[in-house]
Amino acid sequence: MYNFSYTILKEYSKHLSAHIAAEKQKGLAIEVGSELNLKAKFSCLPGLKGKDRDSLAVLIQISSKPPLTKASTEDRIVWTGRFCGRYTEDDLLEVLPETFTCLPLFLYNSSEALTAIVETWIQRNFVVSVSW
């Protein structure tokens, strides 16, 4: 992932949330009956790091708060994705420029429509190729 930074995960969360809202306003179907209040959150998963040289795994969750619910109601997770990876070839890490974060495995769980929106945002922001 080009120019990815663990220090601005909150910014990524805001940007992805805004991107999803913009796509919904364009009329792209995310899911029949889906709520309008979708919010993305990026966080680290240090437990998925194999070797010291491996990059920290990243968790992305998209949650929704159904309309007409109490403020204290917990958000419902509607999309989950994890970037992670463990390298057996130390040579690969040595040749990568510091501007790249290498997380070759992307696991996700959700609808295809919402996944496509997230994929587009990830590819635009981090100059990556995601193969499904």
pLDDT under 50 segments (min length 5)?
none
Give the neighbour order of strands across the main sheet: 1-2-3-4
Order of helices and strands: HEEEHEH
Count of β-strands:
4
Helix percentage: 25-40%
Q: Could you say which structural class the secondary elements and strand pairing correspond to?
A: alpha+beta
Main sheet characteristics:
4 strands, antiparallel
Radius of gyration: 16 Å
Outline, from the CA principal axes? globular
Q: Report the average pLDDT across residues.
A: 81
Q: Which strand-content bin applies to the residues?
A: 15-25%
Task: Please report the distance between the alpha carbons of the first and last residues.
Answer: 16 Å
Oligomer: single chain
Number of H- or I-type helical stretches: 3
Q: What report would you give on this structure?
A:
The chain is of the alpha+beta class and 132 residues long. It is 29% helix and 23% strand. The chain is built from 3 helices and 4 strands. It has a 4-stranded antiparallel beta sheet with strand order 1-2-3-4. Helix 1 (9-25) crosses helix 3 (112-126). The two termini are 16 Å apart.
